Hints:
Elements: H1 2-9, H2 43-50, E1 52-54, H3 62-69, E2 71-74, E3 84-86, E4 91-93, E5 99-101, E6 104-106, E7 114-120, E8 127-129, E9 135-136, E10 139-144, E11 148-151, E12 154-156, E13 159-164, E14 167-170, E15 176-178, E16 181-189, E17 194-197, E18 207-217, E19 222-225, E20 230-237, E21 253-269, E22 280-295, E23 300-302, E24 307-311, E25 317-319, E26 328-333, E27 340-345, E28 348-350, H4 356-367, E29 372-373, H5 390-393, H6 401-411, E30 413-415, E31 419-423, E32 427-430, E33 432-437, E34 444-448, E35 454-459, E36 466-475, E37 479-483, E38 489-491, E39 494-501, E40 505-510, E41 514-516, E42 519-526, E43 530-535, E44 549-550, E45 553-555, E46 558-560, E47 564-575, E48 578-580, E49 583-585, E50 589-597, E51 600-602, E52 605-607, E53 613-623, E54 626-628, E55 635-645, E56 648-649, E57 654-656, E58 664-669, E59 672-673, E60 688-693, E61 707-711, E62 714-719, E63 731-732
Parallel strand pairs: 1-2, 2-4, 3-6, 4-7, 5-7, 6-8, 7-10, 8-11, 9-12, 10-13, 11-14, 12-15, 13-16, 14-17, 16-18, 17-19, 18-20, 19-21, 20-21, 21-22, 22-23, 22-24, 23-25, 24-26, 30-33, 31-34, 32-35, 33-36, 34-36, 35-37, 36-39, 37-40, 38-41, 39-42, 40-43, 41-44, 42-45, 42-46, 43-47, 45-48, ...
Antiparallel strand pairs: 26-27, 27-28, 29-63, 60-61, 61-62
Amino acid sequence: MKNLIYFLSLFSTVVFSQNYNYGxxxxxxxxTPAKPAGVNNQLEEIEYFKxxxxxxxxxxxxxxxxxxxxxxxxxxxxxxxVPIVMKSNQKLYGHNTLNPVSRITIAAGSxxxxxxxxxxxxxxxxxxxxxxxPITNCIIKTTKYGTITAVGAKLENNLFINILxxxxxxxxxxxxxxxxxxxxxxxxxxxPIVLIKGNSITPSNGNVHFWTNxxxxxxxxxxxxxxxxxxxxxxxxxxWNGTGSSVGNKAAIYARNMSNLKLAEVGGAxxxxxxxxxxxxxxxNNLLLIHPAIGSDAISLVSPNANVVNVGAYMNYARSTxxxxxxxxxxxxxxxxxxxxxxxxxxxxxxxxxxxATVSTIKNAFLGTKLTPWTKPNWETLPDPLGVNWKxxxxxxxxxxxxIQNLINTKGIAELPEGVFxxxxxxxxxxxxxxxxxxxTGKTVICGLTDDFPLITMVSFVNGINYHLSxxxxxxxxxGQFFPENYVGTAYLNTKFVVYRDQKIGIHYYKMGGTxxxxxxxxxxxxxxxxxxxxxxxxxxxxxxxxxxDKVVYYKGQYINCGIGTSNHAMRGNNLNSWVDCxxxxxxxxYSNGSNNFSIMANCxxxxxxxxxxxxxxxxxxxxxxxxxxRPTIASTNFVNIYAEGCSxxxxxxxxxxVPNNDNGAIVINSTIIGDVVTKNRSDNKKDNSLFINTAxxxxxxxxxxxxxxxxxxxxxxxxxxxxxxxxxLVTQ
Length: 733
């Protein structure tokens, strides 16, 4: 995002009838459109639209409305001025533009509170969890500004999604947080961005933070203290301690008195800071690292007592001062000058490990406690409001393009009612907070009268980086949403519940500026040639405008019956793009990438793929993903590097093929692979190394052992014991 800011600083099937009136002073008019019959919205949309709509003129009564109706949604506008207290089963939905509201307190003992699409007053301390009885099963989704605080509270089984603010939890005297999920949290400047302190009497355990962006804080990034089992997957820090002051002098990830800490997919560097501090400085009993690559001129530190497992590292660490009592297990190191695929125990290369004590230590380090894996989402059948005959039924329908465009031009956002809106030419939407909002994916449709133009074309203005799109289906046309070469870029976008149907390309990023720190919530693609297509351009002087995609999270998206579900190929590398709870089904190729760093799929399913590979490209990390009922003609995967934990690859095909002219590697932990993992297509002189830890390999009965590696097609059993795979990262206690 820093790069984008810098660049910006430089510069059913029934339809309505309609009547146009072309008088000089009159605008195109639209009669009430007929509604698609028999098709409903998606479940979350239904809950949203049935909530009581509180007019902006009555914003002073927001608390009364919540206490009276339980579920309230807001119009576009500023609803601040009245502090809000949320109690059990109350829901407050903001407008897609994020309504400003005052401080929100979630009362002690509350359950099933839902907050969404709110811009919370920072001066009013944001969202506060009240101390007292446990606060459980709440959803905090797409909230901006205002620190989320909990002092002495008790938080259990809550879900935090798309949080654009700091988290300050202090349970050091009393209280705890347990089995909470955090999916996408980002903040910057004011420090620390993440502060979580626990206590030993009522320990905090089972919390998973997926995707955390420590965006150039002036001081400290993340401070953790006295927590039990804690997991962070996907951490990015472009810089920290930006002022170089003594106030922020800690490592980007600073942890003390930790019990079990798991860190995976950690990247970034602190080139911006005048004072260099480490990427991490961790004091823990047990530390598990997968694919750490956070760089700094100051080496990262680990306490002398910590038992450390470090797999797939692109960086070294050192022990802090003291007598070393913990062990080090290292494997698949990619960092210079130790670029080796060896397994090391306390610095000694292990070929075949037979010493009982060493075997026991290593097994216990990877096995851990068997916990409850994240449940898969209940993927709904996506609404299809126009049905199978949509192409023939659109013939001869009147053109609503001018009507919708006039709404955009005059109101900024065209808020469309239920109905089918046919258009014969593109709708222009700028990044200066223009957009289109419908009445639900099953109720509002914009359909192309032909398939030779983009339904929506984005129009660029300097300093315009945000638009609004939600609650509708886009069907037909050549492209659902087209970003042309001159489009400056997009950042901090929150689109939700849009279905792209029957286009050559659903979303086309064509040689545009950057797409940065965005959140795509239930954005789905059906019957598209390519669901999402990134098409970068070759630039040598300023690669930041080559069309990169950085730190974007796709949540609960479905990619159904597409040629390619997602195609992310970059010139300047993409960073920390993630897919969570997504479904890829019936595609020719589910996912394809190139020049991507820390691309992460979490809790996703890949099914019924029919092309050469299910997924292919440069690097990909998989956590808690399932592959089944696929019929690839060559292999399941084709990547330079694969990292996988807690996954199931259940297709009876070759697991992976190498990418020519690249050193290839795979690290698979706590997983099951049905297919052949030994046979490869290595015909050049590059390296091909794979490591399988606690992974069942039924295709290779004699190699299906606790630890096995394959080097250029030659398998070696490192630990003979039988595997017992179960996930360790996407789990709750």
